[in-house]
Amino acid sequence: MSEALNRRGFLGLAGGLAGGLGLAAVTGCGGSAGDPAARPQQGGRFRAVYAGGGTKEVLDPHVQSLFVDIARHKAMYEKLVELGPDLKPVPRLAEKWEPDAQAATWRFTLRDATFHDGRKLTAEDVLYSLSRVADPTAPERVAQSSLAALDLRRCRAVDPRTVELTLTAPNAEFPALLAGIGTQIVRAGFKDPSKPVGTGPFSFVSFEAGRSMVARRFDEYWDGAARIEELHVLSAEAEARANAVQGGQAEYANDMTATFARTAEAGRSVRIVAAKGSTLHAFVMKVDRPPFDNPDVRMAFKLLADRQRLVDVVLAGRGEVANDLFGKGYQYYPADLPQRERDVERAKSLLTKAGALNKEFEIFTADASAGFVEAATLFAEQVAEAGVKLKVTTGSAQTYAKDLLTQGTLGSHRSGAMPIPQYFTDRLLSKSPFNVTHWKRPEFDAGFAAAQVLTDEDARAAKYGELQRTLRDEGGILAWGHPDFLVAVGPKVQGVEAVPPNTLDSGRFDKVWLA
Amino acid sequence: MRSYAAQRAALAVVQLAVLSVLVFVLTSLLPGDAADQRFVETLTPDQVERMREQLGLDRPAIERFTDWFGNVLSGDLGTSLISGGPVLDIVRASLGATLVLTLATLAVVVPLAVALGIVMGTRENGRLDRAITSVTLALSAIPDFVVAVVLVAVFSLQLGWLPATWIGGDLLASPVLLVLPVAVLFGRTVCLLSRQVRAGTITALNAEYVVQARRLGVPRRRLLLRHVLPNAAVPGVQELARTGDTLLGGVLVVEAIFAIPGFATALIDGVETRDVPVVQGLTLVLAVAALLINLGADLVCNRLVPRTELLR
Questions:
Q1: Is the CB of B273 less than 8 angstroms away from the CB of A211?
Q2: Which Pfam families match (chain A) (predicted)?
């Protein structure tokens, strides 16, 4: 996959974003040759600030869960496969791959890449990395469940540059799983995370959890040495991030609020790079509990949401309305479905039919994610117009993700960017570990399993499309908005892409430069 | 004097023991535990359960506490449940920044508050007294975060004179990092402290012996330095010891706004991630510091103005 192809994919996705938001931003894609700022410059120190995790921050790439960790690891390590701007797998350390006819055994050809200590990447490194992730005595390795499909005993090195990975069950989406978080390739025998050695564009200098990591350009990087000389990945809370990027103490600030974006755009000191609709905000209804075990009530609630207003108020207009589905703009998203509109009258008649009118229900939320409580409160007002009383209950922010699985009947839900099939695997199958809507349908599971083994991409897409239609009309997910993902950059920064988090070009600093 | 110190020390040990039990119980009452914190929709419930076993969180609370307490008695603060490193390292790393910040603030606040207090006290209800009172009161009435936001907006973002945060900064290389945080902490404490010194000055000036000394014609300067100041300092020193908590509250805000990796930040992190050994360790250190400061303050006051009631 060439860089050009990536960029084209990006342009297709973000379409008109730069103009729409009045940004001269997002250079590096096209860019007029005459503009000196568009010509990459060499050298300099680049400081990127992320939300900190204190002592939670780790150097071990297989334990990552925070954006700041992911950015640090991305600088030093790489995966076999990454996700493009539409969350479709693109080759990285694996130059190409080929499944057998059943999509059960996959052959990956490795790139000619060099580790920071000068050794070449081999198939043994890949096998070691995957078995390190799978190690059952280390439950904190995040990719354990997504890579559970691997049958490690039957995986083998064909030659130093070819590795054959065998699955316990066929899966046409396997490359995407290798692109998930915590799947980095480390050197065979890697034991001490405090001495990182990867194939990435930067080599390790120093790390202090909750504060900073410093890394230096790695000149032998297979994808062309980075333009900047030194990379600092720093940790700070939202207010400090804003001050740092405005005050010139940082060149890049990740995950900024819509409020900050508004004030920043009024000034001159920073530029906002906005990835359109890159995550999901939703309310989730538990389909096995009253009143939401009744499909009419679920539909009524979906009809009662004033999505545009939720986006305008809760996301300060920086987002798109959602259509009760995850993954707008991603591979396999059925873009042809009509947008769900508000219809209070139809909702009322559905509620009357279900005997749910003039009753009080509860919505379970917490201050766990920006906008959760606001959205719940606003939604309670919206359903009140149809005679439904909705009481907002706020739980503990720290344990919300866990509580939501078991508590309440209606709650707040947010999801980061991931491929649509992975969202299904995580949340919508009977055995899914994060099935917050308790959507357990054997026929849905079977449909998904049947789709996943189709090696023909179009056939697979068609199957996934059907499943998503069912979900949109009968499922428990009331998706109301796709917030933009906002990043602030200093005036000299070039080459920052407007892409969803968790994709190849997000937090990727080997392609940025300082004009 | 010695028995007084011994009494105080014995009391302190009891206080510490009670405190550590309290902190343990309170953190245990919070919903969730350290293993749940890893449940960020990336680890499955099964993985979290295995992790809980590894961390020993499935053991009874009593057992975990007595283990911890035994370790503390042998001088070991234990291991962080989140980072896996020694708690002592976290305490040490976070204490540095906060200590520097606090000492720098005191270095500015104390001389200024004493000077202001005496100036106000000797001019009770005069124009200068009222002017200083209004300014310091007004300063202390503004919440710390407002002061911080305004100062950053003006001096960092507008004028560009001072760094807006400690991000990526090195205190040794650029002590200028201290200016804004100290300025924020300054407002609150200088007001409280100078008012105490002022009150002490007034009391001392009206005291029988000072009035007598004045009648005897002791020069004003000598009167102030030898007789008034030591007495006026007593409420000041006691207030200074109490300033600890005010300052800690302020430090919390200041650390968050200026991204200072200090004590307050570590404590909040510890509570949020249910990292009980870290919370315990930090609280213990904080408690010891508070006890020492109060003890020190009492001893200083006792030395300044030996009075028997202080001994009780």
A1: no
A2: SBP_bac_5
Contacts A–B by Cβ distance under 8 A: 135
CATH number at residue B147: 1.10.3720.10
pLDDT in the model for residue B40? 61
What is the distance between the alpha carbons of residues A496 and A342, in angstroms, rounded to a whole number?
Answer: 37
Chain A residues with CB under 8 Å of B278 CB are: 55
The answer to whether A240 contacts B259, with C-beta atoms less than 8 Å apart, is yes
State yes or no: pLDDT of B94 exceeds 80.
yes
Is some CB atom of chain B closer than 8 A to the CB atom of A139? yes
Paired with A478 in beta bridges are: A283
Q: Is A128 on the interface with B (CB under 8 A)?
A: no
Give pLDDT, residue B307: 59
Q: Choosing among A243, A414, A415, A431, which should be mutated to test the B contact, i.e. which has the most B CBs within 10 A?
A: A243
Rounded to an integer, what distance in angstroms lies between the CA atom of residue A165 and that of residue A151? 8
Q: Which residues contact B89 (CB under 8 A, 6 or more apart)?
A: none
- Find the closest chain B residue to A52 by CA distance: B259
- How does the average pLDDT of chain A come out, rounded? 90
Greater confidence, A212 or B248?
A212
Which DSSP string do the residues of chain B spell out, in sequence order? -HHHHHHHHHHHHHHHHHHHHHHHHHHHHSSS-TTGGG-SSSS-HHHHHHHHHHHTTTS-HHHHHHHHHHHHHTT---B-TTT-SBHHHHHHHHHHHHHHHHHHHHHHHHHHHHHHHHHHHHTTTSHHHHHHHHHHHHHHHS-HHHHHHHHIIIIIIIS--S-S--TT--TTT-GGGGHHHHHHHHHHHHHHHHHHHHHHHHHHHHSHHHHHHHHTT--HHHIIIIIIHHHHHHHHHHHHHHHHHHHHHHHHHHHHHTT---HHHHHHHHHHTT-HHHHHHHHHHHHHHHHHHHHHHHHHHHHHS--GGGG-
Q: Is B33 on the interface with A (CB under 8 A)?
A: no
Domain that holds residue B116: 92-275+291-304
Residues of chain A with pLDDT under 50: 1-34
pTM of the predicted protein model: 0.86
**B195 in Cβ contact with B162 (< 8 Å):** no
Q: How far is A195 from chain B (nearest CA, A)?
A: 16
Q: pLDDT value at position A234?
A: 95
pLDDT score of B189: 83
- Please count the structural domains in chain B: 1
By residue count, chain B amounts to 312
Q: Does B36 touch chain A (CB under 8 A)?
A: yes
Residues in chain A within 8 Å Cβ distance of B273: 54-56, 398
**What is the DSSP secondary structure assignment for residue A185, as one 8-state letter?**
B
Q: Is residue B12 part of a domain?
A: no
Nearest-Cα residue of chain A relative to residue B169: A249
Q: Does B256 touch chain A (CB under 8 A)?
A: yes
Q: Is B302 on the interface with A (CB under 8 A)?
A: no
* Backbone dihedral angles phi then psi of residue A47, each to the nearest 5 degrees: -110, 120
Inside any domain, residue B60: no
**Residue B72 located in a structural domain:** no
Can you tell me the ipTM of this complex? 0.81
In the stretch 42-81 of chain B, residues with CB closer than 8 A to chain A read 42-48, 50-51, 54, 80
Q: Which domains does chain A have, with CATH numbers?
A: 202-276+485-514 (3.40.190.10), 280-483 (3.10.105.10)
- Exposure of A322 in the CB half-sphere (CA atoms within 13 A): 31
Cβ count within 10 A of residue B213: 17
**Contact between chains at B261 and A211 (C-beta distance less than 8 A):** yes
Asked if B256 lies within 8 A of A239 by C-beta distance, the reply is: yes
pLDDT band at B1 (very low <50, low <70, confident <90, very high): low
Q: Please write the tens of the pLDDT for every residue from A388-427.
A: 999 999 998 888 988 999 999 999 999 999 999 999 999 9
In a domain, B55, yes or no: no
